């Protein structure tokens, strides 16, 4: 049996908004929006991977807050786990440094205005209540 490899995604929250990131690569994912993050490296704690990925991809200093219950299948052997996160005081504002070409802070009412990656949709739905939204069937 192949070991599963966790990909961590960040529900980066700020003032009731969620950060969405549009992928610029690879071609099959480009143009679709995701919760930013990446693969957990061997021996790495998922929270540390999240902080590292957000630093590399967005140039921010972030803190993982709590895991959103659930696990969403990606292309085998990967599976997506999502953590809420926030920017540390003094962090730079997020910028699309690699893998992304646009970022957007979404309020609960515009959360579905971007074409999320199919596999991120259930994770975004699970993250929505953390924004203070009450739309379980959006
Ligand atoms: N996803 C995905 N949704 C999502 C993330 C963070 C990742 O579907 N929110 C997928 C996309 C890739 C795989 O998970 O198929 C790994 O994500 P990637 O490429 O962002 O991970 P990295 O940055 O660790 O990958 P390397 O470029 O290989 O270092």
Fold and architecture overview:
With 138 residues, the protein is mostly beta strands. It has a single domain, classed as Nucleoside Triphosphate Pyrophosphohydrolase (Alpha-Beta Complex), CATH 3.90.79.10. Helix content is 14%, strand content 37%. It has 2 helices and 7 strands. Strands 1, 2, 3, 4, 5, 6 and 7 form a 7-stranded mixed sheet that branches. The protein is globular, with a radius of gyration of 14 Å. Mean pLDDT is 94; it is low at 133-138. Bound molecules: 2'-deoxy-5-methylcytidine 5'-(tetrahydrogen triphosphate).
Average pLDDT score: 94
As a percent range, the share of helical residues equals: 10-25%
Number of domains: 1
In CATH terms, what is the architecture? Alpha-Beta Complex
Query: How many whole angstroms does the radius of gyration measure?
Result: 14 Å
Range of strand content: 35-45%
Instruction: Name the assembly state.
Output: single chain
Topology:
Layout (H helix, E strand, L loop, with lengths): L4 E10 L2 E7 L9 E2 L2 E3 L6 H13 L3 E12 L4 E10 L12 E7 L14 H7 L11
The structure holds 2'-deoxy-5-methylcytidine 5'-(tetrahydrogen triphosphate).
The site of 2'-deoxy-5-methylcytidine 5'-(tetrahydrogen triphosphate) (523) has 16 residues, from strand 1, strand 4 and strand 6.
């Amino acid at each position: 049996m192949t070991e599963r490899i966790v990909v961590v995604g960040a529900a980066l929250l700020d003032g009731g908004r969620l950060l969405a990131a549009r992928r610029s690569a690879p071609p099959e994912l480009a143009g679709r929006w995701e919760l930013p993050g990446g693969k957990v490296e061997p021996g790495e704690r998922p929270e540390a991977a999240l902080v590292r990925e957000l630093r590399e991809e967005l140039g921010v200093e972030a803190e993982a807050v709590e895991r959103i219950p659930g696990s969403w299948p990606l292309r085998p052997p990967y599976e997506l786990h999502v953590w809420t996160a926030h920017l540390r005081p003094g962090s730079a504002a997020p910028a699309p440094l690699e893998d992304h070409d646009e970022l957007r802070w979404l309020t609960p009412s515009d959360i579905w205005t971007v074409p999320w990656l199919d596999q991120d949709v259930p994770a975004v739905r699970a993250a929505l209540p953390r924004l203070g939204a009450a739309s379980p069937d959006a």
